[in-house]
Amino acid sequence: MSGKDADKGQEKAPIAFQISRQLDQEKIHFLSNRVEDLIRSNSELRSSATQNEKDTHDIVLYFQREMEIKDEIILRLNEELVKCQTQLKFEVEKARKAFEEELSELRYSTDTRIAHLTAQLANAEQELKAIESYRMERHQHEELIQSLNKSLQQQRDQFIDAMEEQERRFLEEKSQLFKQLDEEKIAFREVALQEARYNL
Questions:
Q1: Is 147 within the bounds of a domain?
Q2: Which residue from 18, 37, 51, 98 lies 20 to 30 Å from 67 (Cα-Cα)?
Q3: Burial (0-12, 13-18, 19+ Cβ within 10 Å), 64
Q4: For the chain, how many structural domains are there in total?
């Protein structure tokens, strides 16, 4: 090895050392920063954990209040439910009694109405029978009247015929009687004349 090469070797040695040292310093600086980051992260985590604990406590308190409010609401609703059930039971009982009374009145009214209608129907049937009987009797009476009128007309015709016959006979007899009287008058007159003549 020449003198120049030895000098170059000595120059290279400090440069390598400087590079190594620089790398070490960078590592130290990186590690220091990393440690600071870790410390800061740890602090943030602790702060976050504390905040989380506080938030958790607040949430627990909130839910406890909500549960208490819900319990109060449930209690009030249960009381209202019992009240409503009692009121509903009262109203149902009242409606049931009213319905039973109305049904009883309706049944009584219906029975009375049915009895009244039945009586009216019976009366109507009796009246219908009476009307039908009256119609039959009237028809029979009309037939009897027609028969009597026919018989009466026949009797009238016969009576008129008989009266006409009697009148004809009476007139004939009257005519004969007047004729006989006339003849007797003539005879009496002749006798009277003869007697008068004889007496003279």
A1: yes
A2: 51
A3: exposed
A4: 1
